[in-house]
Specification:
Number of strands: 11
CATH topology: Peptide Methionine Sulfoxide Reductase, Chain A
Strand order of the largest sheet: 10-9-4-6-5-11
Number of helices: 6
CATH superfamily: Peptide methionine sulphoxide reductase MsrA
Oligomer: single chain
Helix content: 25-40%
Structural class: alpha+beta
Distance between the termini: 40 Å
């Protein structure tokens, strides 16, 4: 039996579990580690300057890329979201090899954004409050392995400066009970994942993993950050 620990679903009592087609979905204890609701996460005190210019990109790793992708596709100012791999080499940048846990890759999402409409600080606020649990080392729920680590792959020193400052800010505010273990690394190269992994949640909305993992995160985003949603 495959067991998955549901993330970010505070509405589900810890003593309950959902079954779907013989699979058991167990809620996690994420909400026991965070001390504030998402909208009360602080705004980034150090951020990029909102200004017209070329689009920018950052790669975020926070567990299964299907779920992180589903969150960022909702945001105003995000121009493209691509699932892929970061941290390793071209020779090992394929799903089967990355899932073996023997590479330096993390399942990652490249978020391309218009800096005039959304800043990196806002993107990171969503990353830490909605997209994943940054206190879990080399895992998200029962997705275990270094490929599921929490990481920010920065395109330049300005992005690293913003990310470092925001992590310090969250630590100082004691937003989480446990330490943040998010790694910061240079984005040397991002490798696009296989086509069937792109836009996965939107194309498979009734798949159990999407229903019990990605959908709760998207609903939480809509509940707490309605002002950040893309205008359809």
């Amino acid at each position: 039996m495959w067991i998955w620990s549901e993330q970010f679903n505070s509405a589900t009592p810890p003593s309950t579990a959902a079954r779907w087609g013989g699979l058991l979905f167990l809620p996690s204890a994420y909400d026991q580690t965070v001390n504030v609701t998402p909208e009360r996460f602080p705004e980034a005190a150090v951020d990029e300057r909102a200004a017209a210019g070329p689009e920018r990109a950052v790669a975020l790793a926070g567990g299964c890329f299907w779920c992180v992708e589903a969150v960022y596709k909702q945001l105003e100012g995000v121009t493209a979201v691509t699932n892929g791999y970061a941290g390793g080499t071209a020779e090992t940048a394929d799903y089967r090899t990355v899932c073996s846990g023997t590479t330096d890759h993390a399942e990652s999402v490249e978020v391309r954004y218009d800096p005039e409409r959304i800043t990196l600080g806002r993107i990171l606020k969503v990353f830490f409050s909605i997209a994943h649990d940054p206190t879990q080392r080399d895992r998200q729920g029962n997705d275990v392995g270094r490929q599921y680590r929490s990481a920010i792959f920065c395109a330049d020193e300005e992005q690293r400066r913003v990310a470092e400052a925001y992590i310090r800010q969250l630590d100082a505010a004691k937003v989480f009970d446990a330490p943040i273990v998010t790694e910061l690394a240079a984005l040397d190269r991002f490798y696009r994942a296989e086509e069937h992994h792109q836009d996965y949640a939107a194309r498979h909305p009734l798949e159990p993993y999407i229903l019990f993992t990605a959908r709760p995160k998207v609903e939480k985003l809509k509940k707490h950050f309605g002002a950040l949603l893309a205008r359809r």
